Amino acid sequence: MKARENINISKHLQTRQLTDIVENRTAYSLQAAELNIYETHAYAERVELRFGHPVLASMIRGKKVMHLNGTPLFEFLPGESVMLPSHELMCIDFPEATETNPTRCLALALSEEKIHHFTDVLNEKYPLVDMPEGWKITSKNFYFTNDAAVNQLLNRLVYICTEGNQARDVFAELVLQELTIRLMQTQARHLLLTNPGAQANQNRLAYAVQYLREHLHEDLTVGTLAQKACMSEPHFYRCFKQQFGLTPIEFINRERIRQATELLTTTDRTVTDISYACGYNNVNYFLKVFRRQVGIPPSHFRRRHHSRSQAQQVLLATTNYFDNGAY
Q1: What pTM value is reported for the model?
Q2: CA–CA dist 54, 122 (Å, integer)
Q3: Counting Cβ atoms within 10 Å, is residue 164 exposed (0-12), middle (13-18) or buried (19+)?
Q4: CATH 1.10.10.60 spans which residues of the chain?
Q5: Does residue 208 surpass a pLDDT of 50?
Q6: In the chain, which segments carry CATH 2.60.120.280?
């Protein structure tokens, strides 16, 4: 299967010099950040890396296994990122890197002064609802899957760095400002959505999210959620979009499709039945939303999942067969 590259570094690869086979580094210095692109062309273990500034690391190609302080080790794949505080040690394995299948990763070191400037502006103009600590970049490791906006901004930043335009610091400043805000929105969304029930008594948006998840099968409206949050509908809409980066309706559809994928893989209920169970009274609309979010129809999603499950069961049975000495 061809490696998936969400961040386009083709222009960078035309001019970069390859001097090291493990974590070959090319750095692009900006006034407010430093963009590093790393390549590894050989198997390696326990490679250590540390930055003196907060850093956003994003996978471009291949696979790493990350060992981070206070975090269980995890496979780091294309389309995923991890935000780390300054001076945080990364210990990295490269289990699949070869000369013909290199691992590539982007590491964006950010100016703490600029981050504080952006957060001060946000906290003054767009304060978070029921979160006294306000907007901030996490002081802990934060691992997440990139959304389309983050990928677009990283692609734009790579283009600016490799284009050679004399005004690149001006262009980069605008991209970095939006990227920082998007990252903080992703983080705020993660904090509230991981366990909204634990925060429902202190945070009105968390309470609305908890209610939403418990009533996905019902006819949910922005007005209903605003009422549960004790806010006017326009104010609720603005705060929700600002804090989560999604409109309430977009979020409702995302949660309903998430529930639909669970029902498709854990039950034998029909697609029509699942559509109604997830709050869609119009099956055709459900099919349209599902395909837009997942990329394939529900029936194909179920067949693909079952095929993978059967393959895993065969592999497990074969492994047990040999492990038990039955040969």
Answers
A1: 0.75
A2: 19
A3: exposed
A4: 197-302
A5: yes
A6: 10-193
